[in-house]
Amino acid sequence: MPNAKVLSEKQAIVASLTEKLQSAAAGVLVDYKGITVAEDTALRVELRKNNVEYAVVKNTLLRFAVDNVGMNELDGLLNGTTALAICKDDPVAPARIVADFAKKLQDKFEIKGGFMDGKVIPMETINALAAIPALPVLQAQVLGTMLAPISGLACVLKQIAEKQGAPAEEAAAEAPAAE
After folding, report:
1. Cβ contacts of residue 176 below 8 Å, gap of 6+?
2. How far, in Å, CA of 21 to CA of 116, rounded?
3. Would you put residue 118 in left (φ > 0), alpha (ψ -120 to 50) or beta?
4. Which of 20, 53, 120, 156 could form an SS bridge with 73, CB 3.0 to 4.6 Å?
5. pTM of the full structure
6. Phi, psi of 116, deg, nearest 5
7. CA gyration radius for the chain?
8. Strand 110-116 vs strand 119-121: parallel, antiparallel, or unpaired?
9. Taking phi first (over 0 means left), then psi (-120 to 50 degrees means alpha), and beta for anything else, what does residue 70 get?
10. Using CA atoms, how far apart are residues 24 and 139, in angstroms rounded to an integer?
11. Where are the beta strands (DSSP E) in 38-171?
């Protein structure tokens, strides 16, 4: 039986994990066997840029936290090496970034499962989320779509003005020559 100090530390870790899982918009569980320090560092840098929290966690402690928030379906995935990537504000970011690294690192890095808004989601949903572009890209696409009709109208008006202005310019250019 662990001593009281160790037990209280583990309970604090479980409480912290439980709170993070409850407040997260989405998250993914990752099996990270065999990645190098450089690959892990690159992954962590990319995750930090996108406000995604990433940590290697003990399966037993995460199992208690997962059970506390009612996502017992994840219990079967908590074996081997496990890391948790969660984000509070962007539900797409963890899946997108981790899936990109899983493609790059193939056999070394694999998504085990995930959740969104307190519910476990299937791998098909995780893969669909991973295919969605980053939020700034989506915003730019929407803005471009909204500006396209206005830009088209401006181009047409400019061409009409140039066509109507061309005869007047030619006449003005010929007038001084006639004098």
Report:
1. none
2. 10
3. left
4. 120
5. 0.69
6. -145, 130
7. 28
8. antiparallel
9. left
10. 22
11. 53-56, 83-87, 110-116, 119-121
Q: Fill in the DSSP letter of residue 80.
A: S
What pLDDT digit, counting tens, does each position of 115-149 carry?
888 888 888 878 877 777 767 777 787 787 887 88
CATH number of the 4-132 domain = 3.30.70.1730
Q: CB-based contacts of 70: which residues, under 8 Å, 6+ apart?
A: 118
> How far apart (Å, rounded) are the C-alpha atoms in residues 127 and 123?
6
Length of the chain as a residue count: 179
CA distance 99 to 109: 9
pLDDT category at 53 given cuts 50, 70, 90 is: very high
Phi and psi at 43, nearest 5°, equal -60, -45
